[in-house]
Structures are given as structure tokens and as C-alpha cells.
Amino acid sequence: MEAIELSRSQARRMILHAAGLSGKAQFGTGIDAVNRVIDHLGYVQLDTNYVVERAHHHALFTRVPDYQTEWLAALCNDGDVFEYFTSDAGFLPMHDFRFSLPVKRAFATQGGPLTKVQSDLMTQILDQVERDGAVMVGDFENDRIEASSGWWDWRPAKVALERLYLEGKLMISRNSAFQKVYQLPLDVIPHDTDQTEPTDEDYARYIIKRTLGALGISSVKEMAWRARRVKGNLVKKELEKMLQAGEVKTVIVDGVKGPLYILSDTDVNVNIEDEVFILSPFDILNVFRARLKDFFDFDYQIECFVPAPKRKFGYFSLPILAGERFIARMDAKADRKKKTLIVQNLHFEPIEIDDITIDKLIGHLKEFTLFNKCNDVIFKKSNRNDLLKFISKAFSDGY
């Protein structure tokens, strides 16, 4: 089948539409819109960093303007959404539950062997949950024998709980403080949920469809990343079959290295609004750095993982999208005691930005400030003092 040729602008619009960023409320408003977003994307990445509102809430607020953080917990409690892994930890539609089973099997069979002490502890904890109900790490005494050697040096009870979770023997819910609550699957999964494990072929097809549905345009590498927990997966083989069957098409994007793929029913001529979005670093649009550079000419890296002396833009720099262009990145921190959003650095890209776009940025920044439960903004520096002065004045004038 002959490849479809696309301009980069066409490709960008398709990618943004697939990501749910073609307009301010592409999926509508209210809690049902949140459910639609998660169902469409198939996965919203979770992150615990609380410099500004956590990444999963941020991603949902970006797409649902009236989003309330308690709605996500409500969807989990109602059995519409569950927390688990794809490529990383996140929230998935409950009707996709069966496709988490190969990942759970992979964690159970591909990890390192358990010691007898570890195995016995996991059995004891599972027996306790079956007997007494949900538990948290704090319910167990500090059973560490040696002093902690760092961040990820968990004590044995925490390791056992996480392994039980990853292997699917326990599931997670969250309390109001965002702490994990470990429960039996039967207490979380609705009784009518399909729990039959997919074949290797069906799992691979699921990965391909979900990746292309959320990214719009994808390489094999990006599909494989989503399936990376399951070693020896059949993504590449099933992709070839889907190409032959006409379910997937190859596209050629001007100036972007291929091969690239889309679902056959994808609209290649979508329109987007010239809206401004302040995005989470963990937004699905931003997780592949090379992709941002290839399609958007935006060289982005989240710098909280970069040593402080080597940071260029700040610890937690948020990409700012306007229409189909990234116009800036904003290193921000919410001072919740003072109810103030501190913008450490507002760095603009070397492109022309018109007054309408700046006005939209100011409006969205106001919404983002309130979303972070702040009432004021302090701007510290920018590479465009003229724009910073204008934006600062808009806030001081009570914009």
C-alpha cells in the first residue's frame, strides 16, 4: 500500500488532536469528560512530584477546564479507572484491565528470584489482607535491618507490597493524602470486568492501537516503549500483519525520519484552535523527546533529573504550547502556604509571538494559578523582559 505524504504542519495537527489538545475542551467538561479523556488516551501517566499539581491531575486539567482533582479518585472508586503500569505508572480505563495481565505476568516471571524470607513475607502480607482488609505501608513496623542507603532502598514490607501489586495479587487505591492503599483485586474490579488474559497477538494489537490512537502518528520504537515491560512481545510482527490487512497505514512526513504509522481511519486533515496550554512534563505529548524535536522543533528535557549546575531552564520546567507551536517553557513552583505561584524562569522560544497569543497565555496562566490553589503569581526572570513586564502588569492590574 502506498504511503500517505504529510506536511509537518498536517502531522502536528494530527498529533495534537490525538493527544486531546485540538481545543480547550475537546472532550467536554465535567467528570464524564475526564472519563472520556482517559478512555481516549488509554493511559494518563502518574507522577508524585508536587512542585506544582501532580502530573496526572495537571494532564486532566489541561484537557478538562473545570477539572476537580477529586474526580479522578471518584472514577477509581466507581470502577471506571484503575492504577497500574503500561510503560510507566498511570491510570487506565477499567475495560482495558485484561491487557494489564501480560504485564503482571511479566513482573512475576521476569524479575529476580525471591529469597525464602521475601516469599514468606509476601505470603504473610497477602494472608493479612485477605483476612483483615486493605493495608498501607504504615501499618507495618519498620522491619529494616540495615540503615537506608538512599531513596529507593525500601524496607522489606514496602518491597513485598509493591511486588504483590506489580504481580497483580494486590491493587492500589489512594487516600486523600495520595498514599497507597493496597487491596485485593476483587475489592476493586467490578464483577463484570473481562479478566481473561489476551493472547500474545491480541496484546500486541492492543498496544499498537492504543499507541497510535493517543499519539496520532507513531514509530515502532514508541509502540515498543509502551510494551517494554513484556519481553519478547509481538508488536513488530503484528504491525506487519496490520499493515498487510490495511488496518494501519505508513505515512511520510516532510523532514521527519520514518517509517511512521497511523491507524487507517485517522483523519489526516484535522483543524486545531490557536489555544494556549501549559503542559505537564509527563503529558503524553511530551514523553518522547526526539518526537518533540522532529515534529515541533522543540528541544525539551525535564531537568529535575539533571544535576543542578547543568540545568538550563529550571528544576520543573513546563512546556507552553500555542496552537501547533511551543512558544515557551516555565519553571514554576506552588508555594501553598502563601498561596503563591512562583515563576522562577519564563523562557520564550526564539519565535515571533503576537499579542493575541500573549493574552491567551495570561488567561491560561491565571487558570493554572487557581488550579494550583494559589491566588497570586511572582515572576522572577525571563529571557524576554518586554514580555515579562507586560505579563506581570496584567497580573498586578488584576487581569
Structure description:
With 399 residues, this protein is α+β, with helices and mostly antiparallel strands. The chain has 13 helices and 13 strands. The protein has helices at 8-18, 31-41, 55-63, 70-77, 101-110, 116-132, 156-166, 200-215, 220-226, 235-244, 289-296, 355-371, 385-396; strands at residues 4-6, 44-45, 81-85, 89-93, 171-174, 180-183, 248-253, 260-263, 276-278, 317-322, 325-335, 340-348, 376-379. The strands form 4 sheets. The protein has a 5-stranded mixed β-sheet, with helices on one face. Strands 1-7-8 form a 3-stranded mixed β-sheet. A hairpin with a 4-residue loop joins strand 11 (325-335) and strand 12 (340-348). Helix 12 packs across helix 13 (385-396). The longest helix has 17 residues, at 116-132. The protein is globular, with a radius of gyration of 22 Å.
- The proportion of residues forming helix, as a percent range, comes to 25-40%
Secondary structure: number of strands = 13
Output the structural class: alpha+beta
The percent range for strand residues is 15-25%
DSSP helical segment count: 13
Order of the strands making up the biggest sheet: 9-10-11-12-13
Provide the succession of SSEs: EHHEHHEEHHHEEHHHEEEHEEEHEH
Low-confidence stretches: 147-152
Mean pLDDT: 94
Could you give the distance between the termini? 54 Å
Radius of gyration: 22 Å
